Amino acid sequence: RVTSIRAIDKHSVHQICSGQVVLTLATAVKELVENSVDAGATSIDVKLKECGVELVEVSDNGKGVEEANFEGLTLKHHTSKIRDFSDLIHVETFGFRGEALSSLCALSDLSVVTCHESSQVGTKLVFDHKGHLVQKSPHPRQQGTTVSLQQLFSTLPVRHKEFQRNIKKEYAKMLHILQSYCIISVGVRITCSNQNGQGKRTTVLCTSGSQSMRENIGAIFGPKQLQTLLPFQQASPIESVLEDYGLKDTELPTQLFAITGFVSRGDHGVGRSATDRQFFFINSRPCDPVKVTKLVNEVYHMYNRHQYPFVALSITVASDCVDVNVTPDKRQIFLQEEKLLLAILKTSLINMYEAGVNKISLNYTPKHITTGDDVETVLQSPKSSVNLAGLKAAFSSQHSSSSFRKAGVSDAASSGPKQKTLQSFFKGSGKPPVSNTTVKSPLKPTRDLTKSSTVGKSVLEGFRYGRTSCSTDMSSGDSITPTPDNEDGLHVNSPESEAERPDVKNEDFEEMSEENHTIMESPKPKICDSTGDCTVIPDAKRYKTTSSNCSEGYSTSSSATVDAPVCLQRKTLPLQFCLQELAGTLRRLKDQQRKAGEELKYRRFRAKINPGENQNAEDELKKEISKDMFKDMVIIGQFNLGFIITKLNSDIFMIDQHATDEKYNFEMLQQHTVLQGQKLIAPQKLHLTAVSENVLMENIEIFRKNGFEFLIDEDAQVMERVKLVSLPTSKNWTFGPADIEELIFMLSDSPGIMCRPSRVRQMFASRACRKSVMIGTALNVSEMKKLVVHMGEIEQPWNCPHGRPTMRHLANLDVISQD
């Protein structure tokens, strides 16, 4: 229906735009705190009720609002920061567009109590959802402003319901944003507290108004965090780094960027398990520079690949080189000469970490270090330092190899034992001969290693390990370990070496030249008695078979004799035939083909069995296979003593028996295992931040299931309220405060959801692997059916805990029949 184009009414426009400016609790608090800092406040107090659902209140001791500005305080695009667009280039305040208070009016019940420095008494202002002042009354107050938001997002029913349901997550994100303002706002005391129900108000964040960024970090995260930090030392970018970014030294502006702040040391154990403490500021504005964040983490992983750094970097640049008017929350910022900034950061970080990496502290005094024929005295006193560059030069690869040769050790021997490949069992170029010869082991069931070599190799390569492989001693059977993507060949691990197998010899295989047909010697004839014992005929000749064509009814032998034609007695039987039945059969076949064509409107599975296609294959399986389908799968059989072939309607699937059983066992351990704790002799202080303490106390039951017990004193000071009294232990696995911090980080994002620290997951993965069905184990139909049905009982059946795929689609029978 064609309608005329008309303007949207102002109220609707106001609601639409306001919902895009303030998206979350974090955005609302951020806008109010920024207004307080812009007003010159040295003390800011954030108070919440029910984590912000009922009330958000921000008080400051800033300049306050003059009476002449009461009316325009919450009107759209009314601001004292700029007058026209050109002023954006030189803006030095957090806010400048006049949108925050106006949007908050549209989304909540907003009231303001303010007292300007020129006023004798304060004033309470009440505004409607359109931003219009509806009530004004005297109210006692010291100089400054208090803004109160009640029932945030109540004017947007869907968002309000979502806000209430996810309030724990919203609250945690708000505190993370507030931490960034606490770090960068030197000389400003910021506190944040929360009250649930009629309970006691709890302080969750507090700084002391220090003039130092370092002291602010210590106030928020504790002195323990400060001990792991390095002050950032800016350095000019080196030529090789400039080349990486396509920059030329002569064309670059000098002293454009000034960078200060702190990053974690590169030592293992002092970093963090997640990126939860990374803060970046451009001209004192908290922001999310994606490329800068990625670069800092990449450089850090060069020295500590298993952790992430704490980062607090303040970047200062000329205001006309920055565009902050990109997104409503101003977290995305455009920079001129961004590549130069990255080059400075990369060079500076590498210099800082190299200075620490090249020294090793030692507590002993070895007298000499021998390098080949030379003996050098390197260490003379305890706790001295060894320069790694000197050690690398002394033990260079060239020197080491020459020393090995002098000692009579060949390069091959010095490289250590290598895993034997399947091709090493064959002579010549390593190509396996075409044969059904079975390699037997006296201690293992017979396994056909060469049969279906082409199909077996391609399928097994598709089930290669992911980035982390399952490294468990598969003592119950042979372990077939797929190779990484950059290696060729299928490796076969067996408890027995080649030398321990007297019946496996390279001479058992013979390879002819390409011009001749492949000739395989057949085993000597045997005579077997009724007991099953066989005797080899000593004088029996070895017959050779070739692929040359023979006339029908004749056979060839080594004596070149020609057999006489064979005469067979043939029996004649009458065949009943009906043309009408044949026509009916043809019609039925055509109907079946037509129905199959209607059902198969698209190919559901297109991904190949290839490591590069793993993600596509998983996406297809998630889309097409539901949990209740696994119990309907028909077992066809077992392939290569490692894979279950199943059929669902017209689709054929292959399931890795070890990987799928491992994933089922892993998820059962995850869900039902309660780790036992070991009591500590004395309670241990954790020095958690106020935010982390609250997350821990609200999810105490999840910590108990993971084996952690705490002594909680809610009346104690912040960072002293929680003490550790019991740690989980399990055989050789031990856990500590680092696992607690990791759990806190996960629960901040998903409060109330049962989760495990990564090291607990590793322990469960190891146990699940050991108790699962191994590759090389023969299974009957009921055992295979049990494994397949289990796949429908777990949350994520597509990968084992180590990343190996459990299931892949092989073929669709309808497609094959149509072709």
How is this structure best described in words?
It is a single chain. The protein is α+β, with helices and mostly antiparallel strands and 819 residues long. The chain folds into 3 domains: 10-199, Histidine kinase-like ATPase, C-terminal domain (Heat Shock Protein 90, 2-Layer Sandwich); 228-357, Ribosomal Protein S5, domain 2; 418-496 and 590-819, no CATH class. The chain contains 23 helices and 31 strands. Strands 5-4-3-6-2-1-7-8 form an 8-stranded mixed sheet. A 5-stranded mixed sheet has the order 9-10-13-11-12, with helices on one face. A 4-stranded antiparallel sheet has the order 24-25-26-31. Helix 1 (10-21) crosses helix 3 (100-107), helix 9 runs parallel beside helix 10 (338-357) and helix 17 crosses helix 21 (758-770). It is elongated and about 125 Å long. Mean pLDDT is 74; it is low at 360-387, 389-393, 396-460, 464-533 and 535-560.
Write the topology of this structure.
Layout: H1 10-21, H2 25-38, E1 43-49, E2 55-60, H3 100-107, E3 109-115, E4 123-127, E5 133-138, E6 144-150, H4 157-165, H5 167-184, E7 189-195, E8 202-206, H6 213-221, H7 223-226, E9 229-231, H8 239-244, E10 258-264, E11 278-282, E12 285-287, H9 290-301, E13 311-316, E14 322-323, E15 334-335, H10 338-357, E16 359-361, E17 369-371, E18 374-376, E19 385-387, H11 388-394, H12 397-406, H13 411-414, H14 453-462, E20 479-481, E21 491-493, E22 526-528, E23 534-536, H15 579-599, H16 614-624, E24 634-639, E25 643-648, E26 651-656, H17 657-672, E27 677-685, H18 690-698, H19 700-705, E28 709-712, E29 722-730, E30 733-734, H20 737-749, H21 758-770, H22 781-791, E31 807-812, H23 813-818
Parallel strand pairs: 1-7, 11-13
Antiparallel strand pairs: 1-2, 2-6, 3-4, 3-6, 4-5, 7-8, 9-10, 10-13, 11-12, 14-15, 16-19, 17-18, 20-21, 22-23, 24-25, 25-26, 26-31, 27-29, 28-29, 29-30
Helix pairs in contact: 1-3, 2-5, 5-6, 9-10, 17-21, 17-22
